[in-house]
Amino acid sequence: MMSEGRKIRVMVAEDIPILREDFAEIIGAEPDMELLAAARSGSEICRLVEEAGELPDIILMDIEMETLTAGIDASETIHGRHPQIRIVFMTAHEADEMINSGMGTGAVDYVIKGCDDQVLLDHIRKAYRGVSVLDSRIQQSIMREYTRLRKSEHSLVFLLNNVTQLTPTEKEIVSLLLEDKKVREIAQLRNVELVTVKTQIKSLLNKFGCHRSREIVELIRQMNLESFFRR
Questions:
Q1: Over the stretch 96-146, which tens digit does the pLDDT of each residue have?
Q2: Fewer CB within 10 Å: N-end or C-end of the chain?
Q3: 43 or 99: whose pLDDT is higher?
Q4: What is the CATH architecture of 150-229?
Q5: Where would I find the H helices in 7-131?
Q6: Which residues form a coiled coil (predicted)?
Q7: With bands split at pLDDT 50, 70 and 90, how would you rate the model's confidence at 226?
Q8: Which residue has the higher pLDDT, 135 or 32?
Q9: How far is 65 from 195, CA to CA, in rounded Å?
Q10: Cα 171 from chain centroid?
Q11: Which value, in Å, is the radius of gyration of the alpha carbons in the chain?
């Protein structure tokens, strides 16, 4: 539990000098906050944390610095060593993928650059107290990702169960479908009648619960199971 009787120790990681200075000035002007350090990269913030005489309570972490995901990578490193440090991401991106990647590192909050100074400070104070202040858009994004993962888990179990029950002939046909071969091409490559291949594909559709062979291909690719069908 973090003490309310001392200043909130903050570090900032931001690669744009003018923004880094701005964040430092905003934090430094608050009587209940103390700026410990300001880093220009993900690697530098990791080093500063390890060299610090006292650990920060909060790190304001830009996501895109020396690389597109430098802040996310730094967050994983820092949180792995010091899980008590609370990381608040700052970014100009609002894409679901970026939000979910960032929050998946154990960060506690996420703010969009350009927000009002008081909004940013409010996020710092609430993060320090352990109060979630994620806005509704971010909460909805995380819930969408949770729902997607739950559905994917169910689909993967279903798919793996079907894959393990395929005959060698069926696996060969699926591998050819993954190579975008047409039914006629598959018949020629396997030296069998066209009607035979159609019957075999119909059996595959029933096993996978699909209506078209393209749906089987999409399912396997979506679940990254193509390696099961390499010839």
A1: 566 666 777 778 888 888 888 998 999 999 999 887 655 555 555 554 554
A2: N
A3: 43
A4: Orthogonal Bundle (1.10)
A5: 17-28, 42-51, 70-81, 96-103, 117-128
A6: none
A7: confident
A8: 32
A9: 58
A10: 32
A11: 26
Beta pairing partners, 38: 12
Residue 34: enclosing H or E segment and its boundaries? strand 33-39
Domain ranges of the chain: 8-134, 150-229
CA distance 88 to 70: 14
pLDDT at 148 over 70: no
User: Residues 72, 152, 105, CA angle at the centre, nearest 5°?
Assistant: 15
User: How many Å apart are CA 87 and CA 27, to the nearest integer?
Assistant: 15
Q: Token digits for 107? A: 């960060």
Q: 3-class SS at 62? A: strand
The amino acid present at 39, given as its one-letter code, is A
Residue showing tokens 């990681």:
13
Q: Which residue has the higher pLDDT, 171 or 146?
A: 171
Instruction: Look up tokens 């005959």; give the residue.
Output: 167
